[in-house]
């Protein structure tokens, strides 16, 4: 994929020097969206700790950031265990004396329908996405508390966690958990001036190219061609750099009062996702029998039943 635009940090849509003097960790930053977040944070002036399990990929990102006169340091490890998260934070402190921003982006996929998915498939995905988000947030929060001047935690969700996704019972469970984790941590850490938010990114990447309907748009992005409004608006899809300004904004002074939110960005579309709410309520003196529940369901409650799966969007094949 041609990512040359990533390497020109000042050309990205972020405010130069707005994060000067701050240190950011981005996990899973060797490629795709994580790499875009790392470049954008560096463009805004932060020293970025580039974590990835792929040593060569992490060092390429660091080299590209430095070539563009940004600041970056590589950290090679698979995310999940608490010890790894603590080492990652320690790397930041050793190089810059502090930590200000934690972006827990690392993830893996093991897509299979539930009757074909193995326990190992499930455990690996949940450990990386959900446990990894928790361990990175925990290690960062402890450092932020010690420093005493707040901090920013950004966890990464997915539309799969908001709506469900066929063949991704492991991934959608983990990503739904990330949003629940975000809400809880935002409550626990508010007193320490630490904000915690989830981003729900959508972008055309190598991963997206595996979806046949999107393969043409991925090729367009690779070639630097403009995407149609159907892609950028209705589907909320663009390049990885389209998502990056949400990360830099959430870490800026302007977003100091924003916490506990799930915010989506992709292409031309930004989304504020609702928290779960009670859609319908019924009360009955003395409690409920099975027949009472049936009667209430068919009379009043069924109208509030929620569909599973993402909203239906116009087909890319028609653009």
UniProtKB/TrEMBL annotation:
Entry keyword set: Oxidoreductase
Domain Ketoreductase: 22-202
UniProt keyword annotation of Oxidoreductase present: yes
Pfam family, one: adh_short
Gene3D superfamilies tied to this protein: NAD(P)-binding Rossmann-like Domain (3.40.50.720)
InterPro entries, per database record: KR_dom (IPR057326), NAD(P)-bd_dom_sf (IPR036291), Peroxisomal_Beta-Oxidation (IPR051687), Sc_DH/Rdtase_CS (IPR020904), SDR_fam (IPR002347)
Family note: Belongs to the short-chain dehydrogenases/reductases (SDR) family.
Name this polypeptide is given: SDR family NAD(P)-dependent oxidoreductase
Species this protein is from: Citricoccus muralis
């Amino acid at each position: 994929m041609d990512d040359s635009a990533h390497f020109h940090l000042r050309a990205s849509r972020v405010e130069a020097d707005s994060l000067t003097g701050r240190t950011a960790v981005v996990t899973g930053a060797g490629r795709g969206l994580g790499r875009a977040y790392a470049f954008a944070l560096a463009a805004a002036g932060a020293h970025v700790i580039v974590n990835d399990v792929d040593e060569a990929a992490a060092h390429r990102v660091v080299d590209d950031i430095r070539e563009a006169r940004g600041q970056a340091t590589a950290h090679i490890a698979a995310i999940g265990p608490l010890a790894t998260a603590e080492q990652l934070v320690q790397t930041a402190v050793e190089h810059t004396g502090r930590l200000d921003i934690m972006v827990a982006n690392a993830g893996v996929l093991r897509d299979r329908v539930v009757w074909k998915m193995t326990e190992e498939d499930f455990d690996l995905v949940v450990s990386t996405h959900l446990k990894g988000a928790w361990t990175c947030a925990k290690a960062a929060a402890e450092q932020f508390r010690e420093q005493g001047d707040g901090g920013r935690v950004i966890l990464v969700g997915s539309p799969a966690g908001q709506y469900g996704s066929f063949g991704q019972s492991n991934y959608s469970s983990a990503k739904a958990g990330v949003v629940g984790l975000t809400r809880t941590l935002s409550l626990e850490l508010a007193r320490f001036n630490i904000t915690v938010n989830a981003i729900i990114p959508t972008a055309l990447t190598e991963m997206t190219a595996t979806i046949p309907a999107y393969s043409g748009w991925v090729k367009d992005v690779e070639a630097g061609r403009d995407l149609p409004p159907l892609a950028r608006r209705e589907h909320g899809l663009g390049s990885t750099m389209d998502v990056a300004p949400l990360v830099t904004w959430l870490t800026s002074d302007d977003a100091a009062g924003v916490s506990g939110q799930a915010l989506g960005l992709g292409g031309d579309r930004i989304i504020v996702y609702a928290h779960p709410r009670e859609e319908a309520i019924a009360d009955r003196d003395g409690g409920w029998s099975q027949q009472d529940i049936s009667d209430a369901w068919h009379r009043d409650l069924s109208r509030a039943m929620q569909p599973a799966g993402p909203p239906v969007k116009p087909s890319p094949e028609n653009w």
